[in-house]
Amino acid sequence: MDIKFKMTPEVKELGINVCMATIRDANIVNKNSSLEKIKKEIIDKLKNLDMSDNKILQGYRELYDRIGIKAIPPAESLINLIKSNGRLPNINTVVDCYNLVSAETLISIGAHDTSQIKGNIRFVITDGSEKYTPLGQNEPIKVQKGEYACMDEEKILCRMDIKQCNETKITKDTKEFIIYVQGNKYVNFDYLREALQKVCNLIKEFCGGTCEMIIA
């Protein structure tokens, strides 16, 4: 499935920037021992990370404050898990790969099963009428006007950069998916693209498949 994406001027004005790729023919499993070893090495490096003055995390928090949402950037939540429990969650080999890179780079990363995506992808400002069913839930919830979101033609795929939808979650049955990294005004495009390449390389190493960058 060939997917394109675009960003509205209103989203660009917020300082949000995105790089995206399609992964095809992936073989996803629950856990990989070699990946777990890499996770442990990264956890050991990050458990004493000082996040107090980090500009990347500050950029996400400024976006949330501007919209009036109280939230913690996803990468910061991962680092907090490392600091409190000495671990990163185990979901499956794709999610574990991008969580690992998110924790390393502090960039927000998401992935969506293309078989559940309708049409192309847009990054928009919500008007409050959008359909959104959060990950892990079966019923849609209301989204407030003025948030930013990643959407296909019928639903929100990810609310801001905080939580993905349930319909497009990555499972062991997923064979093709898009993955994207989402930055803010403190993230330059080269750093963003490097983060995407890093996560694509890791996924190809542990899940196989091919990677194709998507140009906006």
Tell me the layout of helices and strands:
Layout: E1 5-7, H1 9-13, E2 18-24, H2 33-46, H3 55-67, H4 74-85, H5 93-105, E3 108-113, E4 121-125, E5 148-151, E6 156-159, E7 163-164, E8 176-182, H6 189-207, E9 210-214
Can you offer a commentary on this structure?
- This protein is α+β, with helices and mostly antiparallel strands and 216 residues long.
- It has one domain: Phenylalanyl-trna Synthetase, Chain B, domain 3 (Phenylalanyl-tRNA Synthetase, Chain B, domain 3, 3-Layer(bba) Sandwich).
- Helix content is 35%, strand content 20%.
- It has 6 helices and 9 strands.
- It has helices at residues 9-13, 33-46, 55-67, 74-85, 93-105, 189-207; strands at 5-7, 18-24, 108-113, 121-125, 148-151, 156-159, 163-164, 176-182, 210-214.
- The strands form 2 sheets. A 5-stranded mixed sheet has the order 1-4-5-6-7.
- It is globular and about 45 Å long.
Overall outline: globular
N- to C-terminal distance: 16 Å
Biggest sheet: strands, sense, closure?
5 strands, mixed
Please write the CATH class name: Alpha Beta
- β-strand percent reads 15-25%
Strand line-up in the sheet with most strands: 1-4-5-6-7
How many separate structural domains? 1
Mean pLDDT across all amino acids: 96
Could you give the count of β-strands?
A: 9
- CATH-level-4 superfamily name: Phenylalanyl-trna Synthetase, Chain B, domain 3
Contiguous runs where pLDDT drops below 50 for at least 5 residues: none
Number of helices in the DSSP assignment = 6
Order of helices and strands: EHEHHHHEEEEEEHE
By oligomeric state, this entry counts as single chain
Structural class: alpha+beta
CA radius of gyration:
16 Å
CATH architecture: 3-Layer(bba) Sandwich
Helix content: 25-40%
- The name of the CATH topology is Phenylalanyl-tRNA Synthetase, Chain B, domain 3
